[in-house]
């Protein structure tokens, strides 16, 4: 970002504080029922976190429903039956007990019908179809939260997943993002997360309560788009970091790529939504998630393999081979971001984002990540005057 743009940056907001832990029963007229829509790696860990809290907190029903996209395992058994018999998602989170109060349900409608708190946590490409199936099937007083990283690009522009949920289902939707590699939280290693909310801080407080444990510290900020865009865009930067690792370019180069990536994340987010706050980038959902994803996430890992193979094997092939059914989000997000950039004429301003996509589709070699990202973007064009066209 140019010095001119830095000078125009908004005054720093107050740092987010952990929200009060005593959400009272007076405010909650009835016990809330929670359903987790999704049961992959992170979905299963989310169910585990939530299930430990619904048992502990009087304002929630003990049982946590978890919708499972049904699969038949190599043993011939249904995944749902196995989860319900041994309390473990043997495919996506093997070796971890979810809590006896987690009930797996392969029937989406049945799983959500009694819930008044819905936690969405599936790969983002499935969400539009899931929302269509849920129209008219959920209760009137439902609150939602999305743990999903990604966006949908439509003719009229990019649509964040929380907006897709809100628009299609007519419900309020918060987001939860952070430096959260699921397998580490599953074994209760300390980490942090950020809830992004729109207006209602009491709802945010309730989500914070539902997710917080001594090893999972959740804070809330009033910036849904900022939190969600951080979580979404860092997967594109993680691909760039993976290319650098695959090319064995070293730590300085990787740090430079991360810095350039963070700058593009911030500029892109603020161009799309002028409400996005600078301080959000310093929360767990921002720089912390960027660091952990560029050091240890699956996008980095597969991008490293892509570069080691000289960019000759496709991401689809590597994903199927390396991730055992888990999904990469970075490649589709890079394409979606590229579509936004080209549609709006912003490609020159975001050389790292643009180059990542062009590498993914074999238009450029992995080594282009450094050659192209180091071009000085015309960030002076990204001052306040550009934002009004978004
Ligand atoms: N895993 C992590 O460490 C992590 C951390 C933070 C956020 N996230 C985000 O959480 C979201 C979910 O990721 P995950 O790790 O739980 O999933 P995953 O990649 O581990 O698993 C894929 C899931 O998709 C399901 N699926 C496959 N085909 C489907 C279909 N046609 N319709 C619906 N579902 C289908 C599978 O059954 C499985 O549950 C993603 O947006 C991801 O970016 C993941």
UniProtKB/TrEMBL annotation:
Record-listed substrate binding positions: 149, 298-299
Where does the record place the Glycerol-3-phosphate dehydrogenase NAD-dependent C-terminal domain? 223-370
Residues engaged in binding NAD(+): 38-43, 126, 182, 298, 327, 329
What ranges does the record give for the region Disordered, renumbered to this chain?
1-24
Composition bias, kind Low complexity: at what positions?
Answer: 1-18
The answer to whether the entry has keyword Ribonucleoprotein is no
Q: Which SUPFAM superfamilies match?
A: 6-phosphogluconate dehydrogenase C-terminal domain-like (SSF48179), NAD(P)-binding Rossmann-fold domains (SSF51735)
Q: Which GO terms describe its biological process?
A: carbohydrate metabolic process; glycerol-3-phosphate catabolic process
- Which InterPro entries does this UniProt record tie to the protein? 6-PGluconate_DH-like_C_sf (IPR008927), 6PGD_dom2 (IPR013328), G3P_DH_NAD-dep (IPR006168), G3P_DH_NAD-dep_C (IPR006109), G3P_DH_NAD-dep_euk (IPR017751), G3P_DH_NAD-dep_N (IPR011128), NAD(P)-bd_dom_sf (IPR036291)
The chain positions of domain Glycerol-3-phosphate dehydrogenase NAD-dependent N-terminal read: 34-200
Q: Name one GO molecular function term.
A: glycerol-3-phosphate dehydrogenase (NAD+) activity
Q: Which residues form the active site?
A: 234 (proton acceptor)
UniProt keyword Oxidoreductase present: yes
In the Enzyme Commission scheme, what number(s) does this protein have? 1.1.1.8
* Keywords associated with the record: NAD, Oxidoreductase
Q: Which PANTHER family does the record cross-reference, listed alphabetically?
A: GLYCEROL-3-PHOSPHATE DEHYDROGENASE, GLYCEROL-3-PHOSPHATE DEHYDROGENASE [NAD(+)]-RELATED
The entry assigns this protein to a family as follows: Belongs to the NAD-dependent glycerol-3-phosphate dehydrogenase family.
Instruction: State the protein's name.
Output: Glycerol-3-phosphate dehydrogenase [NAD(+)]
Q: Which organism is it from?
A: Juglans regia (English walnut)
